[in-house]
Amino acid sequence: MEFEFYWRWSWYFKYLAAKFQVENPRHFVEFSTGSYDYVPDNLQRTKRLKDRIIARKALVTQANNQWTEFQKNYNSLFPITEHPKYEATVKRIRQLNAELDDLENQYKILTQNEN
Predict the structure, then answer these.
(1) For residue 100, how many C-alpha atoms fall within 13 Å in the half-sphere facing its CB?
(2) Is the pLDDT of residue 1 over 80?
(3) Measured between alpha carbons, how far is 90 from 103 in angstroms, rounded to an integer?
(4) CA 87 to chain centre
(5) Distance between CA 48 and CA 39 in Å, rounded?
(6) In the Cβ-directed half-sphere of 51, how many Cα atoms lie within 13 Å?
(7) Does the model's pTM come out above 0.70?
(8) Are 6 and 33 spatial neighbours (Cβ–Cβ below 8 Å)?
(9) In 1-115, which ranges are E strands?
(10) Cα separation, 101 vs 57, whole angstroms
(11) How confident is the model at residue 20 (pLDDT cuts 50, 70, 90)?
């Protein structure tokens, strides 16, 4: 448990210990702290990675849909490649696709290690 977390919520932990003591007067209640490094197992890691992949795919789809809508409605005199929004949008789509590929590679490596 991080010190900031403990310091912020110590009043609540003490409150719960006191409440439990009041509700169960014959039991011994001790309030103590300790450290614990949480290491998720492979099942949790794969689920979290899957969720991140799904979210990233949604962002990619959303960006592509916005881009196709922009292209459909573009009716300016100058080419679309000279529009200020063009370069930023293409860069964002490439970045999202690169991040998605990276997440999918991590997922593939993690699932291969499980087998």
Answers:
(1) 15
(2) no
(3) 20
(4) 27
(5) 13
(6) 6
(7) no
(8) yes
(9) none
(10) 10
(11) very high
